[in-house]
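Re: Re: token formats

Sure, here are both.
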Amino acid sequence: MRDFYVVSGRLVEVHRFINVPLRWYEHYPARERRELWIATPEGREVKLVVHSRQMPARCGHHVEAVLFRGELVGLLNTTTGAQVNYARADPPLKWRRLDSALLSAVLFMTFVSILMGGVILPVVMGSVALSFFPIALLGRIASNVRARLDVDRALEKVVRISAPRTLLRRVK
């Protein structure tokens, strides 16, 4: 189980930015980036950044932000009851641009080793090319599914903790 942290407070500011990759190997799962400022009850302000199109809260709403390793992975709006699991909302691509470059390099090395007359190196390089990428893709998919489920569990705990207690009063 992963260790999650929760930051609760009032949403003071929300800024929306459009992502533009600067380098050929960079990839953002969403074209939009949100910058949130949350004022905690202790008076501190916390800045959080999330790469997503979804934002279930506006300025002034009370929110519970679920963090994993300092990254925002879930948000619960206690004012409206809306919530979002960012691991599920905008899942990252399983195939990355860097994988294409790596596959091209391995295939080029295989071709060069065939031209040089080698027998063992082309077989090794070909088997690496054929086995590494499916294993990497399956590993990324499994990691993403596990992250989604863990964030769902963390959001359920936050909902249970932050649910307002019903106060029963006698009315005559």
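Second one below.
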Amino acid sequence: MSTTTSPDVYRPAPGTEYPFSVSDIARATAPLLGADWHAESGPWGTTGRLSGPFIATFEIVVDEGDLCLTFTRYLNDGWPQGPELPEGVDVFDGGLWFPDACSVDGLEALSAKVAATIRALITHSTRVQPADLAAAAAQILGGDWGYELDPDGARSHLRRDDEQFTVTLTEGEVCVRDASDNERMRFRGDLDTPALPRQVARAVSILHARPSAHHLPNPYLVAEAAVALLGDQCGAHPGRISGTARIRNQDATWFSVERFGNGLGIRNEDDDRHALLPIVGVDTAARALAEQIGGLF
């Protein structure tokens, strides 16, 4: 049997197939992050560690052929939650990985990508986030105002008792609206400005002072709560026009819950007899409706 080596076998000279090591990426990244950052090489240059002005350190590794950035979060480092990562960076259990990265990208491009990723993890964005905006506006409003954030993070809500005002953010515009969506205030503004929470708090205060926003509970919520008191022989339904609701009693008589001037009332749809309801909240209005509906037959 011949032991002669085929001349077609690929035998690159040392240092030519991969002109840089993983540890070289770390060393090229450190100066991009600033003077407080330092790099260390792992054994044989197969890993690289970055340390800066934080408890946490970052390690650049190759796992199953993919370039990865591993780290552990520490609460005392104060990193922002939910950072906006650069394009081409994905999350895995141990940290982040770069699915499109390969050595032919070059040392400069790879180190720039790693540096941008670390900056995204450690830097607080100047752009206001919905939760931060709601928290700041609630604090400005004072008293018993509270706030919550939608699960998808797209909207925040300011609440007090039965009142709710929803705040949505888009590029260059903020919208504040009441629970019934009957009243809205829109204003354009720089979403980076520290004055934004004050503007939202002022908009809520204005809407809160308007009868349609503050004094009038949502008619459908009132109808639903009243039906719960009246029993399952009655039913609540959306009204024929926006901002109204209907109740059908056990005798198939229909009643409309709607605005009367600056107030809220219930009306027998057969003969238009009506009664006004208190306007201090859904529960109070529902109890009054349940008590007064019998006198409208």
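Residues 130-214 form one domain. The chain has seven helices and 16 strands.
- S.
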